[in-house]
Write a structure and sequence with these properties.
Layout lengths: L2 E5 L2 E4 L4 E8 L6 E8 L6 E7 L5 E3 L7 E6 L4 E6 L8 E9 L6 H4 L6 E2 L3 E6 L1
Parallel strand pairs: 2-11
Antiparallel strand pairs: 1-3, 3-8, 4-5, 4-9, 5-6, 7-8, 9-10, 9-11
């Protein structure tokens, strides 16, 4: 059974930092791209960052570029999202998801409804 489990969410003040983790099990980690998506209240879910485990290539949405950093620890089957300079508009439920294959590039950010597996999400609240 494939499982993706997010952790590290919480409450932080504007300008602060948080690191989210996505622990994957039950899949061949290197065969997937792992993406981070978020859904704010009343808004559609958006892709914000993806990393291809096989070669470490990564992409970011314009909304988080320069503030968020995605990385992976292949020995732990875990992907991280380091979030710095957080803003109130970053408040959302953050999901990680897995997409089988390689070469996705920025398409991974738009595979909102096509990812193969999803975690249950972690709430991030940024206070002003």
């Amino acid at each position: 059974e494939v499982q993706l489990v997010e952790s590290g969410g919480g409450l932080v003040q504007a300008g602060g930092s948080l690191r989210l983790s996505c622990a994957a099990s039950g899949l061949i980690f290197e065969a997937y791209a792992i993406g981070w998506f978020r859904q704010a209240p009343g808004k559609e879910r958006e892709g914000i960052s993806c990393i291809e485990i096989s070669d470490g290539s990564m992409v970011y949405s314009d909304s988080v570029k320069g503030r968020f950093t995605i990385s992976s620890d292949n020995a732990k089957n875990t992907v991280y999202l380091q979030m710095n300079s957080l803003k109130p508009e970053d408040t959302a439920v953050y999901f990680c998801a897995a997409l089988y294959g390689t070469g996705w590039g920025s398409l991974c950010l738009r595979y909102n409804h096509g990812m193969d597996y999803w975690g249950k999400g972690a709430l991030v609240t940024v206070s002003s």
